[in-house]
Structure formats: structure tokens, C-alpha cells
Fold Alpha/beta hydrolase.
Amino acid sequence: MEWPYAPVEFTKQGRAAGDAQVDRALRLVRSGADPATDVLLIAHGWNNDVDDAERLFTELADDVADLARTRAPNRRWVVVGLLWPSVRWADDDRVAGGGLSAAGELPALLDAITERVEDPAAAGELRELAGALEASAEARDRFLARLRDLLPPEPDDGDDDPVPGTLRSGDTEEVFARAGAAELDVDTGAEPSDPPGAGAGLPPGVPPDFLTASGTTATGLSLPGLDPTRAARQLLNLTTYYTMKGRAGRVGTRGVAPLLARLARLPGPPRLHLVGHSFGARVVTAAAAATEVPVASLTLLQGAFSHRSFSGSTAPPGTFRGVLTGPQLVGPVVVTHTHNDKAVLLAYAVASRLARQASSGLGDADDPYGGLGANGAVATAEADHATLGDDEARYRFAPRRITNLLADRHVSGHGDVRNRAVANALLQAMLAAPVVSPRTPPAAEATSPAPAPQGGAPP
């Protein structure tokens, strides 16, 4: 890596794994006669391989460093890699089916169980059941029951991204059918397959039964094209999603936020820039929400959490609404999003089906269940909109506002964030942050300006 780099590892409980790595990062930031002016803290997403996570950090940071050489020659940068025990969540390019033959579904499910289920006993039982899913209703019952054992407990307070009740306690055949139907809809680009008038005659607030309307029943998998083995893989994806969602929040709150506090106490404190990919976007957003120190910028690359998390117009408000209303954010929030990201789009499409809340496009901006990496921040007054351009594009990122960058041209899938177009947007987000005196409350120097016209296309 071109810039100085220090890794910091965190446990499943969210705490830093030890003091030695944290101390080394602090020494690296303040070392020499010319201490760092900026610290770039990067969190990876679904990944249980440290080497691959650090390749992401290196490739992204090196592209930023190359662009910064002429645009910010007087800054000294340090990169801190936030390594946390995530689990592979989705199959990325294959997440919506295409490319896997029917003969390949069972091996794909077995591989997914091995990669994503951390409890050896649970993994063993799920593997034993996998081969019988197509023929045996009992196997489907037991498979789903074991997945439910892996779900996190329900939160005590409001959650804008809850586990769908049907996933926790719905009829097994209904759950499998809904998961498979959502995948078919996303894979074909179709609207939810309910016929006109499906909701006619229902009381206000009661959604239509998309399951029955689309040709499936609660007693059998009758929709043409549904494969219970493939549906089981999507249910495993979704179970892993909710497990990683909770863990990412703990790492951000209990681990990264205290690290930010220690960095902010260094003499002549550096600007702190938070960057997260996938579930790592939730790690750094949770840290920004929990910290009391200035956050110079927050860049969320294909974030795997709710698109309503910053909303002030929903009830309850978004989980991370406080990032925009509290004093700690002094610079911009930049969000990349695209429906090319089938991993985020499908996870929320399945959740929406299970919650019976899809009213138009599954997982899209109007769906109560929708992902940040698919749609950007929605129902958020502070959100502006632009297009992710190439590495010469110019943006006007405003402090204490969100810019949703539509990334269709430069992000082909969930993991495609290692390119110079993304690096350019990240660098401009960091350079847009105002300088804040450590003795002055951030809110006094960084107020919310009127929305600025947005750029994003190359000149």
C-alpha cells in the first residue's frame, strides 16, 4: 500500500481484539515530525478472509493516493483497516440465480452452508437436510427451524430493518415459496407477480397475499420455476444478512467508536474519514452514530442496510438518523447505489416478500424493504442526487448532507468498488470536509447548507 497502513481487528462481540494493534495505529498516525493530517478508516463487508479484505483496502486506497498526489499534495494520510469477523453473505453475481443449472443447486447450497454457518453442529444438520429439500416437506420444516435458531433475537426498540415475522414464524411452505418467487422476480426484472386487483376488498393497511396471487400456495411449491434448494440458499443468505447486520452494529458501536475517540485525542488531531463497503458500511455508520468526536466524511459503498436508515420522515425515524442531526458529522455523506447490485437488491426483495410488503418493484426505492446499496438513502430530506462519473468527474458534496451517487456505469455488482471512479468520489468526499478546531463543537462550524446543485458527469 502506498500510504502507511495499520490493521485493527475486532471480535464478534465488537471489541478491539487487543491493545497492540490499536497502539500501533496511534503511533503511525502521530509518528515523526510530520504527523498525519487525515486518517482513512476502511471497513470491509462480507468476507471471512483477511487477505481479501486487505486487498480491497490496498486497491481502493492506492487509487485514492494516486489521485491525491496532485489534488492534495500537502496532506499526510494514514490508512487504518477495520477487520471484523464477517461471514460470506451472498453469491454476488450469481445471487439472483442465472448461471447455476438445476444440477448445480445442491452443491451451491452445501458450499453456502459451509461458508456462512459458524456453528459446526448447525452446519452439519443443515448439510444433512439439504439433499432432501426437494422431495421432503419434513426436511424443509427442519431446515427452516434450524435457520430460525440462528436468527438474532428481536431488538427491544424500534428497527427500520426488522427480521420479517414470516421468516421467524410463518408456514414453512409459504416461506420457501416466497423466497423463490422473489428471486424469480429479481432475476427476470419483473414486477411482483400479483394480478391486478389482488388487494381488492382488503381492509386498509392489510397487504395482499402475494404468495397466493402469484400462483403458489401455503401447502406446496407450485409456481413454475421454483426450486426449493435454490430458495433454501436465499433463506440462508437472508439469515446470514440479519446475523451480520447485528454484528456490524456492535463492531461499530463498541469497537470503532472508541478507536475514533482515541484518534481524536492525539495532539493536533487528524481529520477522520470513515469508509465502508457492504456490511462494512453499517460498521462505520454505527460508529459515526455512536461517537462524539468530529467525523470529517462518511462514504458508504454499496451499503448492506436499510435505505430508510437516515430518514426523518418515517415512524420510527431511521436507525442512523442521529448521524445527520447530531453534532459529530462535519463533512458529507456519500452513498453509491445501483440495481446492478443484485446481492443487496435480492436480499431485500426476499425480505419484502416474506413481510408481504411489496407494492411495486421488489426491493426498489418505494419498497419499505429496500437496501442502501440498491436505492441510496430514501425518505431523507438531506439527500441530494448525482451520478457517479469517471475519475475526472467533479462533485459538490455539501457538509452534513447525503449525496446518493447512481453508480450504474461504474459498479457492475456488489463487490465492484475497486476502481478509479469510486476512488475519485471518495477523495472528493474527504477533501470536502471543513477544518474543525478540536476545541470548538462541530455543530458551531458545520451547519446544514441549502442543497447544492449536483455534478457527477465528466466535464
Q: What stands out?
A: The longest helix spans residues 228-264. The beta strands are 5-9, 38-43, 77-83, 271-277, 297-301, 333-337, 383-387, 402-406. The CA atoms of residues 29 and 35 lie 6 Å apart.
